[in-house]
DNA sequence: CGCGGCCTTGACAATCGTCAAAACATGTGG
DNA sequence: CCACATGTTTTGACGATTGTCAAGGCCGCG
């Protein structure tokens, strides 16, 4: 039932070559990584790791999307991260996974067994530096999300999420500064709710409200059009557009 | 009006020597750090950095407590981190501060000008590694806090905060596994509210409720006694005590 | 004593969650 | 092709939690 195994691809041809943990590597360092890497694919919906499980690998998302979630005993769940292509999974220096990682679309990961990766990292400052840089970026993102979770209204939360997804989409397929955008929502209403600390009913209602007020329009349930990105940023309550318009 | 300048202290005598960014350094590396470090002190209430300001130093908290906050245009504010002794302030590789940093008690910091520190870090894997480790810990803490902000009730939020402070206090002054504890709350009700994504009135009400229900008792406004830590963990909704009881 | 912070408490309102029903899409098997 | 089952989304009615506004208490300090 697994997706087919992926054949070995040269790092030089890798689509995330310049953004992943290997971004700063020289060609010899890349060869060392190439020697220990392997690809794994996951189907949409498949769990990658359960919180508490022993993790004997780390890796980078090559394509597809995964979510990082935490759950309480009674089932309440909170998404704590969204993993997109080039994002790193796993923590060198720790055995157990701290979160559930689930593929929400079909996914391909570039994996390394943890032990050899840790050894290589100890000898390769370029990898360690890049990982530090990526971790600091994730920390900033997590802290920005704390403001969303702690202080924004349901409507602002939805607008904030749409803003983030739009921004990511724009960075993947640059098209210059434009005022309107259309993109796919890679999350179910429930996943959106788990990200935003809301119920799925509230998410649905606020999506309808934003549609009714002309901030967005929907084609099907998942495709979103934003006629005026500036308006969306205002709705998100952000004091700036995060450099989106330029 | 500033607190007096602190004289130069040898790293060997530093109280945070084994936990800060320099924890892994050998003696020669420590000498290099010692050569570029300087101490700064701040009085309770003083701002250390405003979000957006240029930051020309980084450093470690030696003593005292500071808060990291984000604010929206309309004044809503969310605390995104609590800086305790040994925590690192600033981000190598970035000029502007992303958050407001404010001393909530009298504080002493061990500072480095950013440029020399960055250069030293490039040559000293022990520093870079330790900083990565600390950043990963902070990321975990931020993600754990996302669950608190997104999914917990007001009562659970308060209990979670008390749990964290109790745990930190216990790690500073170890006393073995005990079932009851007393500690000082280093935050005003407003600061607690900003941490928890609540209003100060709700914080006050829930503190009163926990007192009424015998989960805590108060001596003055700031000193908290917990007769049964297990009960507090339950109230926090955590599925474990985080290794506190042992 | 009186002032200013900080905290508590009350009354009321607003937001968001809960429970329930129904619309809609998608896939399976007859 | 239809019937049916399943999963997702929308919408409504209602209730609970939390926020807002307001008043008053406690405490240290000039």
TrEMBL record, chains A, B:
Q: Tell me if Hydrolase is a UniProt keyword of this record.
A: no
Transmembrane annotation, as ranges: none
InterPro entries in the record? cNMP-bd_dom, cNMP-bd_dom_sf, Env_Response_Regulators, HTH_CRP, RmlC-like_jellyroll, Tscrpt_reg_HTH_Crp-type_CS, WH-like_DNA-bd_sf, WH_DNA-bd_sf
Where is each HTH crp-type domain found? Answer: 152-230
The Cyclic nucleotide-binding domain sits at 30-138
SUPFAM superfamilies from the xrefs? Answer: cAMP-binding domain-like (SSF51206), Winged helix' DNA-binding domain (SSF46785)
Q: Tell me the PROSITE patterns matching this sequence.
A: CNMP_BINDING_3 (PS50042), HTH_CRP_1 (PS00042), HTH_CRP_2 (PS51063)
Q: Which CDD domains match?
A: CAP_ED, HTH_CRP
* Protein name in UniProt: Crp/Fnr family transcriptional regulator FnrL
Q: Which organism is it from?
A: Pseudophaeobacter arcticus
């Amino acid at each position: 039932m697994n997706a087919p195994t992926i054949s070995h691809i040269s790092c030089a041809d890798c689509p995330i070559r310049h953004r992943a943990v290997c971004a700063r590597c020289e060609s010899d360092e890349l060869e060392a990584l190439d020697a220990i890497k392997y690809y794994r694919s996951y189907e949409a919906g498949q769990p990658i790791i359960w919180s508490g499980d022993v993790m004997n690998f780390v890796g980078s998302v090559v394509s597809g999307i995964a979510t990082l979630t935490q759950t309480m005993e009674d089932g309440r769940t909170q998404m704590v991260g969204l993993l997109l292509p080039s994002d790193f999974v796993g923590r060198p220096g720790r055995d157990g996974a701290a979160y559930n990682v689930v593929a929400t679309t079909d996914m391909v990961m570039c994996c390394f067994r943890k032990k050899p990766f840790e050894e290589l990292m100890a000898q390769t400052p370029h990898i360690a530096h890049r990982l530090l840089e990526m971790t600091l970026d994730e920390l900033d993102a997590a802290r920005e999300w704390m403001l969303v979770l702690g202080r924004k209204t349901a409507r602002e939360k939805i607008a904030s999420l749409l803003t983030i997804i739009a921004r990511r989409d724009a960075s993947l397929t640059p098209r210059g500064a434009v005022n309107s955008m259309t993109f796919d929502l890679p999350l179910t209403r429930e996943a959106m709710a788990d990200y935003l600390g809301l119920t799925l009913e509230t998410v649905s209602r606020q999506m309808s409200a934003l549609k009714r007020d002309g901030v967005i329009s929907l084609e099907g349930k998942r495709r979103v059009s934003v006629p005026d990105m500036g308006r969306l940023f205002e709705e998100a309550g952000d004091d700036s557009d995060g450099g989106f318009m330029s």
